[in-house]
Specification:
Layout: H1 3-31, H2 63-67, H3 82-101, E1 102-103, E2 106-107, H4 109-132, H5 137-153, H6 163-181, H7 184-198, H8 206-237, H9 244-282, E3 286-290, H10 291-296, H11 300-307, E4 311-315, E5 321-326, H12 328-337, H13 345-357, H14 359-378
Antiparallel strand pairs: 1-2, 3-5, 4-5
Helix pairs in contact: 1-3, 1-4, 3-4, 4-5, 4-13, 5-8, 5-9, 6-7, 8-9, 9-13, 9-14, 13-14
Length: 379
């Protein structure tokens, strides 16, 4: 294929495949955390309110929502625009991944395939965390295992590290903390594993060994940093400030982007979280309340206040029905129900995707452009 054709063919093909996968991701986002349904049962998509099955032409990516004019063909209730939005987003992200891994002079289809799966998992995990404040083990644990395996076979995913120097430096750095952690056994396993990989230096498996070491290091580093932040926050505030799902999820992300990428991901997530948290909490957040809680847990005045705002019926994770509030109503609903949590998973996801797709650009922005901007502003 001529290079000029490859420049547009692969992104276009990735986009078209991506929007179809995005339709399936919408199914996963709704069904995976809900006990009443599974990803493959029922086999056909349905309206979560009236349970009407969608016809084949109504379930086409992007087009189906437009044909239905954003409303269910049965109960006529509004269908959230998030469905076509995430189909479009998946297609765009797959196209961007193809631009990184499917260059005309270096077509790495294996790395692109792993990256596309990673992007899909990240989208599903981010939206489940946004909706329900959970990060399912069915996503995080397999991802922590399978991503390093993928990096071994396709090391272009994760920039490799110089194994002998890295193993020696890490051993020196861990000498002090080992006695405090009282984890000589686990740390020893990790160091021995690095030394085993270092023995492959100079062999045909050198690139795979370096990539795998970088992936495992990113996994451990990312999970450890989030665990440390969570532990310190719990001590300061006297309550859990972050679930252990975030720790495992950051391990998954770190396995794909490596140590430097994990550090950049966390920095970006904190920056985005500061901005998005305010918007989520005070402007564009939303809250779901079950019908039972609405009737029994809220007083008459609270019920009256919330009835004044626009709300829509939804199916909750436990199979119950409830109401979803948007905009300013969501703020009042959170105050009345005592729900002040803000999910961190979506911000980690955005940061990881930015680093995974544009590693050099993000590194320059965070380590060069941003400090220079701050230095110029302080003068």
């Amino acid at each position: 294929m001529p290079p000029s054709t490859a420049l547009w063919f692969y992104p276009l093909a990735a986009f078209l495949f991506g929007i179809n996968v995005g339709s399936f991701l919408n199914v996963c986002i709704y069904r995976m955390p809900r006990n009443c349904v599974t990803v493959n049962k029922p086999s056909r998509s349905f309206c979560p309110i009236c349970r009407r099955h969608l016809r084949w032409y109504e379930n086409q990516p992007l087009i189906g929502w437009l044909l239905l004019k954003g409303r269910c063909g049965g109960c006529k209730l509004k269908i959230s625009p998030r469905y076509p939005i995430f189909e479009l987003l998946t297609g765009i992200l797959w196209a961007l991944a193809s631009q990184r891994f499917l260059q005309p002079d270096n077509l790495d289809f294996g790395a692109f395939f792993v990256a596309a799966i990673f992007i899909s998992v990240v989208i599903v995990a981010a939206m489940i965390d946004y909706d329900l404040r959970i990060l399912p083990n069915r996503l995080t644990i397999p991802g922590m295992i399978l991503i390093p395996v993928g990096v071994w076979f396709f090391p272009a995913i994760c920039p490799g590290i110089d194994l002998p120097d890295y193993a020696n430096d890490l051993h020196q750095w861990l000498k002090g903390p080992i006695s405090w952690w009282q984890s000589e056994f686990l740390t020893g396993i990790y160091l021995d594993s690095l030394k085993s990989l270092a023995s492959l230096q100079g062999s045909p498996y050198q690139a795979s060994a370096q990539g795998l070491a970088a992936s495992l290091a990113g996994l451990c580093f990312g999970a450890a940093v989030i665990w440390g932040i969570s532990s310190i926050g719990s001590i300061i505030f006297g309550r859990d400030v972050m679930g252990f799902g975030d720790v495992k999820y950051m391990g998954l992300l770190g396995a794909f982007v490596g140590v430097r990428g994990a550090a950049l991901t966390i920095l970006l997530a904190c920056l985005l979280g500061c901005i998005g948290g305010l918007l989520y909490k005070f402007i564009d957040g939303r809250t779901e309340i079950s019908s039972e809680a609405f009737q029994e847990d809220l007083g008459p005045s609270s019920q009256l206040l919330l009835r004044l705002f626009r709300k829509e019926p939804v199916a909750l994770a436990n199979g119950q029905t409830g109401y979803r509030f948007h905009g300013p109503a969501a703020l009042f609903a959170r105050i009345l129900t005592g729900d002040s949590t803000i999910p961190f998973g979506p911000y980690l996801s955005i940061g990881a995707l930015m680093v995974a797709l544009y590693p050099k650009t993000m590194e320059h922005w965070i380590l060069v452009w941003w400090p220079s901007l701050l230095a110029g502003g302080s003068q």
